[in-house]
Amino acid sequence: MAVFLGAIGFVKFRQVRAATMQSFQPPPEAVTTVIAREERWEPSLSAIGTVAAVNGVRVAADLPGVVKRITFESGSRVEAGKVLVELDTRQEQAQLRAAEARLELAKANFERIRGLREQGIAAQADFDASQAELSQADAATGEIRATIQRKTIHAPFTGILGIRQVNLGQYLQGGDPVVPLQTLDPIHVDFTIPQPELERVRVGGAVRVAAEGLADAGFSGKITAIDSVIDPSTRNVQVQATLANHEGRLRPGMFVTTQVILEARDKVISLPASAISYAPYGDSVFIVEDLKGPDGKSYRGARQQFVKLGAARGDQVAVLSGVKAGAEVVSSGAFKLRNGAAVLVNNEVQPGNESAPKPEDN
């Protein structure tokens, strides 16, 4: 009798437990949703670039000498040919006067001997010797004049000067730096792209540049040169773009991010980045639709869908496959969902979904 009663009790316990489990349903999870829409995005290539001057040199002394005069201020704008520094040329000036005197004497001797030669009095050898002396004296004078000119340092092109590196009375050796000089408008941006993307880039293509610390300023330009050699160690090719820089906000050596705008436009499904569940086995989203429960009743639930992602743009991510336009996709709260979970949609507050967001604290 005891065994019989125990068996009956166990059967009833199992029946009650099964009924309880079937009737229990977890409460729906609160989520926000967005309707997937199809857009045409400008395909682009992102790269890290460096700003470089179109013309940039470190002006240096050509010949040794003592600084006699400095005619510029650090950071000022100068025109091509402006005198920047004059070195002491008193010794060369004295040598020039002596050379000019020898030149005048050589001219006088040459004219006298030429007259005598025309009269048949002077020999041809004397005439040739006087002509050679005149040429030598003229060359020596020109050499000293060139030395004096080389001790006057000019700006080779129009640009912005840096900080001067010389002082009055300082002795300069040949090649010692005087001041940096850069042309800032226009300006170059050098960057590299991978070898497989080379055919998609062309000279004249549009480029957008953003610099760290200049978040409110965007710069646009065009590709002006593509290197003819690919780096064998990285398989990247160097590209050079030219940009207008009227305000001089871009400076040589700055770190910038570049976007090369490609001609073809891709058709993608645009979703907010918060809708994507990233995982090692694959990225996915949750699509809200009518599902059927174990009891055959319909309810609003989330179905997990694996997707293939493309490029990102602001708050948005391009979905290349897995989601169709018009699908209702969970935009926040996806981290707490599982496949088939019941959901409660509340769209009073939505996550960011802008292609060009401007956060207040950026």
Descriptive overview:
This protein is 22% helix and 39% strand. It has 362 residues and is α+β, with helices and mostly antiparallel strands. Among the domains are: 28-39 and 267-345, conserved putative lor/sdh protein from methanococcus maripaludis s2 fold (Beta Barrel), CATH 2.40.420; 45-55 and 184-261, Elongation Factor Tu (Ef-tu), domain 3, CATH 2.40.30.170; 89-150, Helix Hairpins (Orthogonal Bundle), CATH 1.10.287. The strands form 6 sheets. It has a 6-stranded antiparallel barrel with strand order 3-12-15-14-13-16. Helix 2 (90-118) packs antiparallel against helix 3 (124-150). The protein is rod-shaped, with a radius of gyration of 41 Å.
